[in-house]
Amino acid sequence: MESQIDDRLAPLSERIDSLYETRFANQSKALDNLAQDFTYERVKRAFEEAARVGALFGNKLEVQADEEPGKLRIGLRWGPPYTSGMSHDRQIRRTAADSQMHLTGTPGNPQLSVAIVWEPGEEFYDAVERLTDRLTQNRGRPLGERIDWTTIRIRFEKGIQAAVAASNKSPGRHQFEGMLIETIGPDDSLWYLTTEGIYRPTHDWHLSRTAVTGLTDGSRRIRAGDQVDKPEWAASDEWAYIVNAARRHFSRPAAANVFDSSYVGRSSNF
Question: How far apart are CA 67 and CA 86, in angstroms?
């Protein structure tokens, strides 16, 4: 009798294993070599795969555009249109048909930030040209200070891959808790700002959200004079920026950047 039960369960186990393998294969297909094929459809697929495992906060990622942390951040976001005056509940319940790819540029002065919609079928070069024009017009980035978009594409690829791998708890990959918000610092030793804190896996180091803010939630304003001790190995400019960035994100109402990934299409019931 026991052997008969085992025989009946074996096909089910094989099917479940196959579903896991299919999911991992779909992730690899969407994320591998993304920087070399940075088309609207490929980037959309990458963000959809990230949404399936809750890898990115608000289904958005910001990366550092310059050597100087915080001088310019470039962001990509796949989700509902930015709409003023709309309640968060209504906004997050939009469907996939309403979703857009937003390309953002945020200088050191966030009041000069700009955003455009990357249209389906539009070449990345054309979207970049429109964003660059907006940044220049808004005095957020002088035309003489060129942006290295090749490096930015690579940083998006690596950032999304790291976020998905951390969500999967993939063996042999950098591990951090929470959804990824932003990557900062040198490409060979990145800082990861997540919803749970600041992580630097190459130094086996992290600082929890509570330790950064001194709060258990974001219910009150953080005092500007509050200090967080800098690790001896941390570069001063990187540390100053990432602590300020963490406080900026952690003091926002949690609902402000919620993204409903329930709409994401599935090829199976897994």
Answer: 37
Task: State mean pLDDT over 23-33.
Answer: 84
Q: What distances in angstroms separate CA 129 from CA 146, 149, 198, one per listed residue?
A: 12, 11, 33
CA–CA distance, 117 with 62 (Å, rounded to integer): 16
Report phi then psi at 180, rounded to 5: -75, 135
Encode pLDDT of 234-258 as tens digits. 999 999 999 999 988 887 655 334 4
Short-list 73, 137, 134, 136, CA closest to 108: 73
Q: Order of strands, edge to edge, in the sheet holding 100-107?
A: 114-118, 100-107, 72-79, 60-64, 180-184, 191-194, 197-200, 205-208
Backbone angles phi, psi at 253, to 5 degrees: -60, 135
Backbone angles phi, psi at 251, to 5 degrees: -90, -5
In angstroms, the Cα distances linking 55 to 21, 121, 153, 160, 259 are 19, 25, 18, 8, 11
Reported in sequence order, the residue ranges of 65-195 that DSSP labels E, i.e. its strands, are 72-79, 100-107, 114-118, 180-184, 191-194
Structure tokens at 87: 């309640």
| Tokens of residue 60, six digits | 């958005």
- Are the C-beta atoms of 136 and 143 separated by less than 8 Å? yes
- Residue at token pair 């310019």: 72
| pTM score of the predicted model | 0.81
Residue in the block written with tokens 């990366």: 63
**Rg of the Cα trace of the chain?**
20
